Amino acid sequence: MLDAARGIVRRDLLLALRRRTDIATALLFFVVVASLFPLGIGAEPNLLRAIAPGVIWVAALLSTLLSLARLFAADHADGTLEQLALGAAPLGVVVAAKSFAHWLLSGLPLVLIAPLIALQYDLPQPLYGVLALSLLLGTPVLSMVGAIGAALTLGIRGGGVLLALLVLPLYVPVLIMGAGSVEMAAAGLDPGGQLLILGALLVFSAAFAPWAIAAALRISLE
Amino acid sequence: MLEAAQLECERGGRSLFKSLSFTLEPGEALRVAGANGRGKTSLLRILCGLLPPAQGEVRWKGTPIRALKEEFSRELVYLGHAPAVKEDLTAAENLAIACRLAGNPQPDDAVAEALAQLGLAGVNQQVRKMSQGQRRRAALARLALSASVPLWLLDEPFSALDAGGINALRGLICKHLECGGAVAFTTHQDPGMGAAKLVDLDA
Asked: Which of A8, A134, A167, B28 could form a disulfide with A149 if both were Cys (CB 3.0 to 4.6 A apart)?
């Protein structure tokens, strides 16, 4: 079972390596969106510092969304998804591995590059750690919850827009807690509460999302 | 071994077939015939459990496959219409990962030998650069490594193959049947294999 999960992660990473533009697009999108706000609002340092956590988190949400549409589409089109559903490992384990690979390719780069964007917004340095930690806890939730939406909208015409409408509202708690933790820390308060809730969301979605994704995929495959 | 009881299939509100019952025993080949749109693919998908039948059930060694889930999946190889090979990987990489996911991991030399059996020896390019027939062969190479899996369900395995490919595939199927495996496949044309049980969806 774990062997199959490892196999899936390795395969998805290998596929991404052969098609590097896909990862670069999502990451570049994140950087561009986050960089547009200072241009539009003006370079008032206090204002930028105040909006930084929210802007970075919203950009992370949108960037994740961009890569979600491809999560199952290719496997669906070439018949690999049927083979995954008929594999030796339960489909829940397989999709958990796929979500993990998706996070490695789309969430983790955001965590790593976020401090650079924070620098652009002149966020005080002690907040970088909180920002990165909140993204580290939050982006896997985005991947897993997003994967449920991607599985439900698989093979539907105009699925991309539907996916956004379906998934973005579900991202709201993560957004509030993620951006909130950085704002708390900026105000000199303890961000522990928000981070713990993010952690709880992560544990909750890790436990239940894979089975929801598997059920949605089975419906899409019928 | 495999038993279909009173199967009914509905697609898009239209009934494709009704009260379809048959059994498949070790060493038997079952050919599913019928015109386009008669539900050949649907029948195979029902047999492997991807599609729940509108009525009836499929049993494996007496137990409904819905109750068996992965235990049943491990006992079968299903090759569908889509070749299930990744365009960005080579044939060998595709085959290795497919076997691994099926719970049947294979060493590199076994993978190379299976590809050679299907006439893909030394083809190290990515699948995107291969022809349709070569892709088909890359997908079918999995059968050469699946002798220990009792049930093969093949959807149009002979399509896009040249004479050499058809011979290689026929050889694999015959060997599997001799070893006590069971094969169900769909095809338009008569594959020239004797002793095949026939389910004709036109009838």
From this structure: A167
